[in-house]
Amino acid sequence: MKRDGRISLRAKSVRLGLSWFVKRRTRHETLEQSRRRLLVMEAVIPHPPRGTETITINVGGVSADQVITPASRPNRHVLYLHGGGYRLGAPSTYRHLTWRIASAAQAQVLVIDYRLAPENPFPAALEDAVSYYCWLLAEGADARQIVVIGDSAGGGLALALLLKLRDSSLPRPAAAVVLSPWTDLALTGASLTLNAKLDAIVQAEDAPIFAADYLAGTDPRHPYASPLYGDPTGLPPTLIQVGSEEVLRDDAVRMAEKMQRAHCQAELQIWPRMPHVWHFLAPILPEAREAIAEISKFVQRTVTTE
Questions:
Q1: Active site residue: 103, 226, 245, 276, which one?
Q2: Looking at domain 9-302, which CATH architecture does it have?
Q3: For the segment 122-134, what is each residue's pLDDT rounded down to a tens digit?
Q4: Taking each helix axis from N to C terminus, what angle separates 286-302 and 9-18, rounded to the nearest 10 degrees?
Q5: Spatial distance between the Cα atoms of 175 and 189, rounded to a whole number of angstroms
Q6: Is residue 279 among the annotated active site residues?
Q7: Of the listed 77, 82, 103, 152, which one is catalytic?
Q8: The whole model's pTM is what?
Q9: Cα–Cα dist 49/96, whole Å
Q10: If both were cysteines, with which of 35, 151, 174, 216 could 179 make a disulfide (CB 3.0 to 4.6 Å apart)?
C-alpha cells in the first residue's frame, strides 16, 4: 500500500537536517567511531515518561530490557530486535521508542542486547533471539500473545527468527512487524543504487562492510541471514513499513511480495520520503507517531484477546 505523497513541514526540515548533519558526518566512520557516537547520543535520548518500568534481564549471559508501561497487558509480549547493521545498537539507545511500542501494542516489550558483529558474527544474533523467545515461552507466555518487532538489521533478524522457529517446530508468534528491514545481505536490491543519494541516513557504500562483518564467510543468501531467500510459507501475519526513498526500500518490497506469493498475510506500507526507521524520530516527527499508531492497529487486529 502506497500512502499519500504529502509529508509534513517538520518532516521536510528533518530530512534536510539528517542529510547535512548526520549522513555527511558519518561518512567513512570507523566502527569504533560509530559506537562512540552512539554512546554520546544516549545522553540526549529522552527518557520514558513517569510510570514506565524498565527491568534488566539476563538469559545465558545476554541481557535484555523489559519495558512496561501502564498500557501494557501482563499477558501480551513484544520481542524487539534493534537495528544497527548487526554491528551497533543497544536497548539503551531505543528507550524513547520502545516505551511507545509497549503502549501502542499494549504489551510488555523485551529489547534484546544481542551479540554484535564482527566480534560475534552470524548466527550469534539469531541464537540470542531464539533463546529469548524460548525463555518467554518457558516463563509462561502464550505464543498467540507474542509479537516480534524489529527495525533495519533487526527487521531482517525478526524475519529470520520466524523462519527458524517454523523450521524448529516451535510455536509461532501471533504476528510480526518489521521497520525498514534489511532482508538481502547479497545486496541485489535496485534501490541500493537508485536511492543512494536520496536516503537521508544510510550510506549505501557501507552495506558491503556491514554484511561482510556479520556474515564472516557465510553465504549471503543463507535464509537465516537474508530471509528474502527463504521460503516464507506458514509465517504469521506481518506488517512491513518502509520509506519510499530508502536504500533498503526494495528489501522490504520484495520480501512483502514473496510472502504474498506464499499466501502469507503480509501488509506493506510505503511511506513517502520518510528516512530510514523514521519511527526513531517519534519525539519530533508526526509521521513517526502516525506509523506507530498503524503498528497499534495492526497488533490489535492480529493478536488474540484471550
A1: 276
A2: 3-Layer(aba) Sandwich (3.40)
A3: 999 999 999 999 9
A4: 100
A5: 26
A6: no
A7: 152
A8: 0.95
A9: 9
A10: 151
